[in-house]
C-alpha cells in the first residue's frame, strides 16, 4: 500500500467519489504500448478496457507462449502479466523478456492474487519492476501505476 | 471390503471399485488454502468491474441505485475479508507467514484505513470518530498488509456488533516505546466468561439475541497472531450491553537508523 496522505473522516464514500476516468473521450493517447497476459478473460478484458481509456495501445494474450510471440512481433513498452498462467508462468515470461535484446527494455509488472513473499522476491530478482496484488488494487489503480514505469 | 475375483464386470462390483478408488485418493495437502486462492479469481473480477462501474457512473445514478452499488461493494469487501482470513489461518497453520516490515507514519496510515469503513458504518447509522495523539514518536516498522488486516478486522467487528445509531472511536495513544491503538464501540459488549477465549481460533461468542454465534471465529485469531509477530500485544475491555474496546500495542521504530530523530 502506498504511503497515504491524511484524509478526513468526512471524505466522500465510494458511491460519490469522482471518476478516475471519464466515460467520455479517452485521454490523448500516450503512444505507449502495453502487453497484457492474463488467462482469465473477465480480468484481462477489464485491464484492457481501463488501459485503452487511459490512452495506451493494448495487446493481449491468454498464455505466456502467445504473449512472448506477440511481444517479439511488436515489442511493448510495458508488460502486465499474471503469475500463474498455462504453458509459461509469469516469472518465466519476465526472464525471457529480460534475456531477449528486443524485449529487455520492456518494464515488466507481475499481477497476481498470490501473496507470497518468496515469489515476490523471485519476481523482482529476475527483473520484474513490481509485484501487484490484484484483489488489493482496483483496475484503475493498476493502470495508473503504468506511468511510473514507462 | 474384499475385491470380488473371477467375475465379469457388473454395476455392483464397478461401484465397489469406484468406492475403493475414492477412499484411496489422498486429500490435497492444503485444501482450504487452495479453495481460498481459487475464490479470489472470481472475486477479483466482481470487485474490479464493480469499482470501475461505480467510478464511471456514480454521478448519474439515483440515490437508490447508488445505495445498491454501495451495498454490493460492502458485501464484496466482506467476502474478500472472509477469504483473506481463511487463507491467513491456513498460512499460520502451515507456518508460512512472513512479514515484510517497512517504516510507516502510524497516524495517517491508520486514519486512511478507518475512513474506508465510512460507507459501511453509514449503512448502520454508526458515527466514526478518530482521535489522534498530539505529540509523541509515531513511526513504526510494520508489514502494511498484515497490520491493515488487523485494523480492518477490529473495525469490522466494531460495526457488526454495534447498535444501530452507535459510535466507533479509534484513538491512538503514544507511550515511551510503544503505540497503542484502541477501537472502541457502543455495541452489545462481551460477557466476562467469553473474553478469555475471544482470540482463540474458531471461537465465536454466542449471540443470545440471535440464538446463534456469528462470524467464523478467525478474524480475532488472525489479528492476534499478526500483532504478536510484530512483538505487540492485543487485548479487550468489555462489558455486556455497554460496548467493547479492542486495543493493540506495537513497538515504535526508534532503533531503525533511517528513522532516528
Automatic annotation (TrEMBL), chain B:
Its EC number is 2.7.13.3. Residues 34-254 form the Histidine kinase domain. It is a multi-pass membrane protein. It catalyses: ATP + protein L-histidine = ADP + protein N-phospho-L-histidine. GO terms for molecular function: ATP binding; phosphorelay sensor kinase activity. Keywords: ATP-binding, Cell membrane, Kinase, Membrane, Nucleotide-binding, Phosphoprotein, Transferase, Two-component regulatory system. The keyword Zinc does not apply. Gene3D superfamilies: 1.10.287.130, Histidine kinase-like ATPase, C-terminal domain (3.30.565.10). It comes from the Bacteria. One of its GO terms (cellular component) is plasma membrane. SUPFAM superfamilies: ATPase domain of HSP90 chaperone/DNA topoisomerase II/histidine kinase (SSF55874), Homodimeric domain of signal transducing histidine kinase (SSF47384). Pfam families: HATPase_c, HisKA. Residues 1-20 are annotated as: Disordered. It is found in: Cell membrane; Membrane raft. PANTHER family: HISTIDINE KINASE (PTHR43711:SF31), TWO-COMPONENT HISTIDINE KINASE (PTHR43711). This is histidine kinase.
